[in-house]
């Protein structure tokens, strides 16, 4: 049985302009011990997916359709009590901004201890032992546990958050852009810690990022999201032999992938308005290869076992890949 | 800890300096007032020699700087002299009046802060509900209602119409003597209810509005999401949020206490409460300079001390400012 199943998830936000469909029919599966990378640019709905899974959508947002199942149990059908019991014990979070993720007026230790206390009876001494152990695991000095968050650097806080995510030994860890706001060296250390948890401890992970390189290095399966929809879904092949023009653009925009020596190319334009999204393919307005057919909803085509692409033109992928490497292709704003 | 001690001694020095400035202004002010202090005790039967003798005795003929130094020294040692009209030392009068004022404001203060925090926290947490709107509107109305109006209104209803509670004073005639006997007596409580009620109705609005608005700010903080994701029960999350929302309240309470301690002139007059505010007004009207001077001094000192307390307390409750 898969650990986490997200099926046709739909999340909407109430805004002044109307309902924004932040997540529109997203599906994926995470097997035990697997790391799934969710990529896309800012505002594509990837953090909203994380929030929906964790049940911490802001008041303006709600799940409008679909299902999230953890170990076969639908989270939507749970009572608040059942939901609370499974939070953090089953699904924990390494948040986007460790800077503000810790309560400034409590010690780091007490905030970790609190997570334990909320789920299991454990004597205080054993709790402290557990926390010290986790601090070692993430590379923090156990003595520092009794410090307040402001006495930690950004990297230390993120390590503390990783320790916090591990405190109940959850089945799944959601890491939502875990390196935002950290400098490059620290980013690397944090990612290595996270990879460690995955490799050594066999934790299943949902790794959310805008950085194709990070996903390529860490994930077993990859979901590429754009404007609330899944564009491409598959294994390594997603970045080795991408089919969807958006994936190609995303690969171009980050260094250290297939074409190492090449200059970075960005995708011109901005994502569409989610209150009134365009008919058909959501990427059409920015896609250099768009045709009239793209005005109709694209089919989901399985190009290889387990590799699914939402594009009308998968048959031309070879040509797309060639042309996508040329900066000229992306130069003029399509349409 | 040594940093804390260092900060404390710095603040203390600053306080002494401020106090010295206030005293100097006070000294100048009372000497600039029209009239001769001697004129107050002079009556027609006194000879010029007697008047001169009395002035000599009180040091009024000394050069101003000798008077100034003597004045500063006396004030620093809380030697305020004797009242012109009441057969008591100023210190004794002030102590009694301050005690009486405290007997009225502290119950009101505690109720306002505790109740106000709870109401404000809930209002902020349940943002957007009808309850929250009602709370804010009520708080704004209570905050702007003048206490002489509210005071007279409750007197009219509860004392004159319903005759449930006494109209004023701290005790009934022949009530208990001595501070402890007094404040533990049912008689005092009955006298306290009305002024306390009026005071709470006004003072509670500060904590309510302040805690509500800082609660709104904290509710959107990332760490609240994390607490929720950790599966903590809602009340635990509320405790976290309130603890954060309380930070600005601490300073507010200290300032509020300082202002309240100056005496509630209007309330003390309406409810015939023998407190500090009423005493100051009476002393000024009677030209009892000694008492007035002492009262102003004590008020200034209280405000400064409470601000110091606020600063120090902040250091304890907010780890970031340690």
Write the layout of secondary structure elements.
The complex is a heterodimer of chains A (335) and B (322).
Chain A: E1 4-15, E2 18-30, E3 35-39, H1 46-54, E4 61-70, E5 73-74, H2 80-86, E6 91-94, H3 108-117, H4 124-137, H5 154-166, E7 172-176, H6 184-201, E8 204-209, H7 212-218, E9 221-226, E10 229-234, H8 237-240, H9 245-252, E11 300-304, E12 307-310, H10 317-324, H11 327-331
Parallel strand pairs in A: 3-8, 3-9, 6-7, 7-8
Antiparallel strand pairs in A: 1-2, 1-4, 4-5, 9-10, 10-12, 11-12
Chain B: H1 2-32, H2 37-41, H3 48-58, H4 64-76, H5 90-125, H6 130-144, H7 147-161, H8 179-183, H9 186-203, H10 205-219, H11 222-229, H12 234-245, H13 247-261, H14 265-270, H15 276-285, H16 289-317
Architecture overview:
- The complex is a heterodimer of chains A (335) and B (322).
- In chain A, 31% of the residues lie in helices and 23% in strands.
- Chain A has 335 residues and is an alpha/beta fold.
- Chain A folds into two domains: 4-223, 3-Layer(aba) Sandwich (Rossmann fold), CATH 3.40.50.300; 242-331, no CATH class.
- In chain A, the strands form two sheets. In chain A, strands 6-7-8-3-9-10-12-11 form an eight-stranded mixed β-sheet, sandwiched between helices. In chain A, strands 2-1-4-5 form a four-stranded antiparallel β-sheet.
- In chain A, a hairpin with a 2-residue loop joins strand 9 (221-226) and strand 10.
- In chain A, helix 4 packs across helix 5.
- Chain B is mainly alpha-helical.
- Chain B folds into two domains: 2-76, no CATH class; 91-321, MetI-like (MetI-like fold), CATH 1.10.3720.
- Helix content of chain B is 76%, strand content 0%.
- Chain B has 16 helices and no strands.
- Chain B has helices at residues 2-32, 37-41, 48-58, 64-76, 90-125, 130-144, 147-161, 179-183, 186-203, 205-219, 222-229, 234-245, 247-261, 265-270, 276-285, 289-317.
- In chain B, helix 6 (130-144) runs antiparallel to helix 10 (205-219).
- The longest helix of chain B is centred in the middle third of the chain and has 36 residues, at 90-125.
- The termini of chain B are close together.
- The mean pLDDT of chain B is 83.
- Chain A binds chain B through residues 51, 54-56, 58, 84-89, 92-93, 95-97, 100-106, 114-115, 118-119, 148, 150, and chain B through 220-223, 225-233, 236, 240, 243-244, 247, 317-320.
